[in-house]
Specification:
Layout lengths: L8 E5 L6 H8 L3 E3 L4 E5 L4 E8 L6 E11 L4 E5 L8 H8 L6 E5 L5 E4 L5 E9 L5 H10 L6 E9 H8 L3 E4 L15 E4 L8 H6 L1 E4 L1 H11 L4 E4 L2 H4 L9 E5 L7 E3 L2 E5 L4 H13 L1
Parallel strand pairs: 1-3, 6-7, 9-10, 9-15, 11-12, 11-13, 13-14, 15-17
Antiparallel strand pairs: 2-5, 3-4, 4-5, 7-8, 16-17
Helix pairs in contact: 3-8
Length: 288
Amino acid sequence: MIPRHCGDVGIAEVAFQLTESNLKLHFVGRRSYTRTKFYAATNGRDWAVVQVSKKAAKSLFQPIESVKIVSLPERTCFVCEPELDVLDLGNLLRIQSQHPGKLVVFKGRFEHISFVDVKLPARIRIIDTVPPRPSKLDTLIRSLIGADSSILSIELRLVDIAQLAKNDHDGMLILPCRASYEGVPQKPATEIRYLDQAPPLTEEQVRSALLIGCPLSARIFEELYGAKPRLANICVKESAKVGASEVPTISRCCKVKEGVEVDGRMILVPWGANVCEVAEALRMALSL
């Protein structure tokens, strides 16, 4: 579990022993700011973390209806790092790895407070399409976390357009864009066109071409040429099913326009995802 933002975490300074019963008695019924989802509670010596649920209301403060104990003092430690960015996933996980089995409450730069509670090494799966190589998702996630397998173990599955082209077709290939060309075998009998350039095609070429893409690519093809294409479908959302007990999986999808979409343990980002969207997808995966 990792809060989305330090703004989701409140501080509660109390004068009692941090037991489950005392914490529930303290919080239930109190009014809490609408954004606050967690409280890091301290009595000056020990720390504990609780998650609160509030009664829906339009006001900025709502009464807390229930409290879930996230960690009590025996499983909670406090780290003060004045230069730490408490939104930096890589550094949070590296510090937590120094406190095995513990939830770590952080006080970092600008006095911001957050916490991390992830079972390390964390495991995720990436399903991504190549080329271009290396995989965009793998590259961005490793830039956020680094290559320390004691913190994050990555299972990488690649949908290889070059392999699909090699195995499936000897005639005209339609690829989504030029970025997907790298490594695609150029046989003497193979012509390659790019859908984003809307190339002119004869009726015979429309009938015989193989489109390597997703259902959106197929819709674009049909709009352009008035016929459904022969499609080698590379849509991960349609082909990859992630069970409730499986490793959290991150992939890209052109149907996701911005932000992050979660479907069970499948987490999708836009096809052209930026590093902030990938970081949020990783935070969600680590919180499942």
